[in-house]
Design a protein that fits this description.
Helices cover 47% and strands 15% of the residues. It is α/β, with parallel strands linked by helices. This is DUF4325 domain-containing protein. It comes from Limnovirga soli. Residues 18-77 form the DUF4325 domain.
Length: 99
């Protein structure tokens, strides 16, 4: 399944938009062999968007499963770094022990 983020906007910044895309991803995860996330035309992605759209997938799926089902294309180094950081932060929070 191809998701063209450039059709959503050139600056992806809101949690609402990220959550909307994540729901689409979750609902199609079992029906799709591979997700292709195409960032053609996207200039920026905020930490909030990346967290909502991508990192919160770990609440539904194991990280290795997510990695195996997704690929990112035409993402700038900045966008890749924002997404990677969102996963890192979310994974770190999920491992914290609440006392």
């Amino acid at each position: 399944m191809l998701i063209e983020f450039g059709q959503i906007g050139t600056h992806l910044g809101t949690r609402f938009a990220g959550a909307s895309v994540r729901e689409k991803i979750i609902s199609s995860f079992g029906e799709t062999d591979k997700f292709v996330f195409d960032f053609t035309g996207v200039e920026t992605v905020s930490n909030s968007f990346a967290d909502e759209c991508f990192a919160k997938l770990i609440f539904n799926f194991e990280m290795e499963y997510i990695k195996g089902k997704t690929t990112f294309q035409n993402a700038s180094p900045f966008i890749k770094a924002v997404i990677a950081n969102a996963f890192k932060e979310r994974l770190s929070k999920s491992r914290e022990v609440v006392v």
